[in-house]
């Protein structure tokens, strides 16, 4: 690799540049403001940040000039010592929790590195992993998978799939094909762990072996029923229970089942797996219990940006939910969960750019009130609640109309709570 052009000056681009400088690889770092297509002749390879969509001009210019264009994941893999094993988690929702849980269990037996869409660029791991090979656990988005060419994981998980990121992929089929590309690249001796309950995922094409997990089919390799998980692996049947009180909901039991199955594949003993599950600290803003005020419990699920994640959150509680949702709808069909909301939600407070659109889709399922900001939503939700009720922030929308990101939205929710009860 002679000279590379790094496109995108965010965290990923800076990490690629730092790696290149450290390893004496000639490079230039540009963005939309500093890019000059006339200079492409000076580079052999273009490395794009994951936020750059396939319809961006850089892809067209690269093709026109016959230049290779890849993402940071592919670039990092080309420098990685292949003594390292790679586990990849993808899906629409739940990736970060599963990624962290797998790493938490495996670290009791192995040297473990964690990165990708989790927040640590893969390229940042490479030098350490080359000095001390181990297991690399990567959360990968469809953006990061899109430009893979030689990357081969040893184990790959497809958690779930629903309508999302259509501003990037344009079509739902493109979004799915981007995900599927990962499994076509799987090592032939590797294992694909797939969601049997999703028809698209169940039939995904892969070059490796298949294991299925399910909440509906007891014959699946990993069967989840409430908090109980049964895993059939190498003709050995094991039972695990979700003993972690902070990981509530069947979707988290699924995350535990998938993580435990991977640990068993990598020869971690059952006693250690159970211990690591019980000591796991969930990530913030994911069905995070914040506090209880006069018998009303408040949960922060600000990471919820899809209808599917809202559905999982609502299913985690028996009933008597006061729901706060809204923001920028990413193409979600809220009407699909109208029946569920009617059974479990007493009242919904909707905010954000898409509030009228969402209101129209769920009208009639429960009492609905439109609000202007999250503080108003929290105050009115608390006023509407009775002892024993759950106030749940689970927006099912992007946050960019009112906040920098979902973290800021979650912190605003907590701040509003402490104004009520400091």
Index terms:
422 residues; alpha/beta; Rossmann fold; UDP-N-acetylmuramoyl-L-alanine:D-glutamate ligase; 3 domains; nine-stranded mixed β-sheet; 16 helices; 19 strands
Provide a short characterization of the protein structure.
This protein has 422 residues and is of the alpha/beta class.
**What is the strand tally?**
19
Q: Which class of the largest domain in CATH terms? A: Alpha Beta
Q: What's the tally of helices?
A: 16
Class by alpha and beta content:
alpha/beta
Whole-angstrom Rg: 22 Å
Shape: globular
Please, what is the average pLDDT?
94
- CATH fold group of the largest domain: UDP-N-acetylmuramoyl-L-alanine:D-glutamate ligase
CATH-scheme architecture of the largest domain: 3-Layer(aba) Sandwich
The tally of domains stands at 3
Uncertain spans: none
Alpha carbon gap, first and last residue? 57 Å
Helix coverage percent = 25-40%
**How much of the polypeptide forms β-strand, as a percent range?**
15-25%
Q: How is the main sheet built?
A: 9 strands, mixed
Strand order, largest beta sheet: 6-7-5-8-9-10-11-12-13
Please identify which CATH superfamily of the largest domain we are dealing with: Mur-like, catalytic domain
